[in-house]
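Changelog-adjacent note: as of this version, every example in the card shows the full chain rather than a window. The one below runs 154 residues end to end.
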Amino acid sequence: MRQKIDRFLGAMVALLMGLMVINVLWQVASRYLLGSPSVFTDELANYLLIWVGLLGAAYATGKKMHLAIDLLPNKLEGSKKRQLNLVITFFVIVFALTVMIIGGVRLVYLTLLLEQLSPSLQIPLGYIYLVIPVSGLFIIYYSISNYLTDNGTN
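Full-length structure tokens:
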């Protein structure tokens, strides 16, 4: 199952990055070649960057490529290292659950309830913010999976 999630998330990030490149190229082309900058491209680039950044962070967590200070874990061995990894995993899960999932769901709900629309694209901002709880779920899944794999329980 993890390999399917890895492939799906990797494909999503690659697709979104490709769309962002095409969008920015169109923005530059419309400004300099056509003399009239496209109205929606700046806003779309911002939203794509949000999605790429958050889904990319979840993907990096799954690939264990996330930013970490590993001075202490590299010096520890055995049960002390497992305990430290459990504490780190616990804090990552608490952050992802409280800030990204609970806070993200509240943000999505509130912006959909208030019917806030993006200025140029006129799409509900709740759809843009939906990536926050979704990436939080991926981060929690990957954190638990990485912990179980690293400690030989999977």
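Structural remarks: The two ends are 13 Å apart (CA to CA).
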